[in-house]
Design a protein that fits this description.
Blueprint lengths: L1 E5 L2 E3 L6 E2 L4 E2 L6 E3 L3 H14 L4 E7 L5 H10 L3 E5 L9 H15 L4 E5 L10 H9 L3 E12 L2 E8 L2 E8 L2 E5 L11 H9 L4 E2 L40 H14 L4
Parallel strand pairs: 1-6, 1-8, 6-7, 7-13, 8-12, 9-12
Antiparallel strand pairs: 2-5, 3-4, 9-10, 10-11
Helix pairs in contact: 2-5, 3-4
The protein binds flavin-adenine dinucleotide (FAD).
């Protein structure tokens, strides 16, 4: 069985800087990490590898050269290999062209039985990429997967989280599964995993390698335009009340509220 996991590198903090001129993210301004929700997808793929014979897990990420770190993190957890899809021509990609690029990469790498994605990325947060990749590959998708119950004979049975409960779905492979964090507890890489990741060579695929036409990738393949980016301006300033203990603080707060006519 061949499994691919889609992994995105995201800023490691909430302090995301945007270029107000171009409307794009300044990636170099912040530390990066594997999208935390993608770790559950990686873990689930590794669990299938441990449960069944002849399972091969490949990690695929589209991003700048430093996204190789997210791929290596997935390898250190137990994935077999990784591919970085990176090319200046991919810059400015919206979710449609990101999904086009990832689906063209999957096609280039061969037939996969299961493709995993996270529920959403913590920076863009659209949750569109998984479903869009499945659509572009013309395969079914099951979203919000909270448990894999059974795989065999070309069929997978999964449970998915829905409002107020869960439902069980049986689908033929190949399939794309986007998983929720209730599905498992991602492992911490061990030393041999870290050494394997450090020594792995990650092939970098360009738009030419995946045979992607220029009008489908990057800004020219993106029908969405960010027309304006701005930081919210704070119109009110706070008042800090300092006191030696909780009782005095309460007195000060009451005094302050009375002075404002609230009490
Ligand atoms: C007009 C426009 C211009 C943009 N320009 C830029 C830009 O210049 N630079 C920039 O960094 N961003 C840019 N973006 C944001 C970029 O489109 C999104 O970050 C990207 O498409 C992924 O969407 P998302 O973060 O909402 O992922 P989601 O759909 O929330 O992610 C769901 C899952 O899909 C998978 N996934 C998502 N992205 C990737 C990936 N790259 N590789 C592997 N797996 C992935 C992961 O498994 C993830 O958990 C732009 C967006 C728009 C609309």
């Amino acid at each position: 069985m061949k499994i691919a996991v889609l992994v995105k590198q995201v800023p490691a903090s909430d302090n995301v800087k945007m270029d107000e001129e171009t409307g794009t993210m300044i990636r170099s301004a912040t530390d990066a990490e594997m999208n935390p929700l993608d770790m559950y997808a990686v873990e689930e793929a590794i669990r299938l590898k441990e449960e069944f014979e002849d399972v091969h897990v490949a990690v695929v990420s589209m991003g700048p050269p430093q996204a190789v770190d997210a791929i290596k993190e997935a390898i250190s957890m137990g994935c077999d290999e990784g591919y970085l899809v990176s090319d200046r021509k991919f810059a400015g990609a919206d979710t449609l062209s990101t999904a086009y690029t990832l689906s063209a990469t999957i096609r280039h790498l061969g037939d996969f039985d299961i493709i995993f994605s996270g529920e959403r990325a913590t920076d863009g947060e659209t949750g569109q990429v998984g479903p869009s990749v499945a659509t572009q590959l013309d395969i079914p998708i099951v979203t919000y997967v909270s448990k894999i119950e059974k795989v065999g004979n070309g069929i997978i049975r999964v449970r998915r989280a829905i409002e107020g409960g869960e439902e069980t779905v049986e689908v033929e492979l190949p399939i794309l599964l986007s998983v929720v964090k209730e599905i498992n507890e991602p492992r911490i890489p061990n030393l041999s995993g870290k050494i394997k990741a450090k020594n792995s060579q990650i092939p970098v695929l360009t738009s030419t390698d995946i045979d992607a036409p220029l009008d489908k990738i990057g800004l020219s393949g993106s029908p969405t335009r960010v027309v304006k980016v701005f930081y919210p301006k704070l119109s009110r300033t706070g008042t800090v009340i300092k006191a030696k203990n909780a009782e005095l603080a309460a007195d000060e707060i009451v005094k302050f509220m009375k002075s404002r006519g609230v009490l």
